[in-house]
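I am writing to request your help with a piece of structural work I have in hand. The matter concerns a single protein, recorded as an amino acid sequence and a row of backbone structure tokens. Could you please explain, in whatever detail you think fit, how the structure tokens follow from the sequence? Thank you for your consideration; the sequence and its tokens are set out here:
>
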Amino acid sequence: MPVVRFRGEEIECERGDLLREVLREAGVSPHNGGADRLNCRGLGSCGTCAVAVEGAVADRSRRERLRLTVPPHDADDGLRLACQTRVLGDVTVEKHPGFWGQHTDEPPVSDDTGDESGGAGETTTTDG
């Protein structure tokens, strides 16, 4: 079984599972701050579940490629949409700061409270 490593956790899943669902079923979120509530629920249209992924995953779908060309994302950043990414083997996942996780020039955030404002360097927390 593939293992997903994210924010200090190791989560087993089935080959072919969607990364977003693997994370959410384990009680962790591929979103930062308020994006956990304000997102497209896995349709691949909002881009808030963008993450850096190292390891065996399926190629990008057309929908994913298109969404990652729309700001604030940059197709050259190498991010993936967790809701469109199928896990094929062991992977390591990181979430960068920003509402969309778009600040790839900054270190990954360690929990889901990363910078709701979208501004560089600012981190906010949410109750709940």
In short: The chain has one domain: 3-94. The two ends are 32 Å apart (CA to CA).
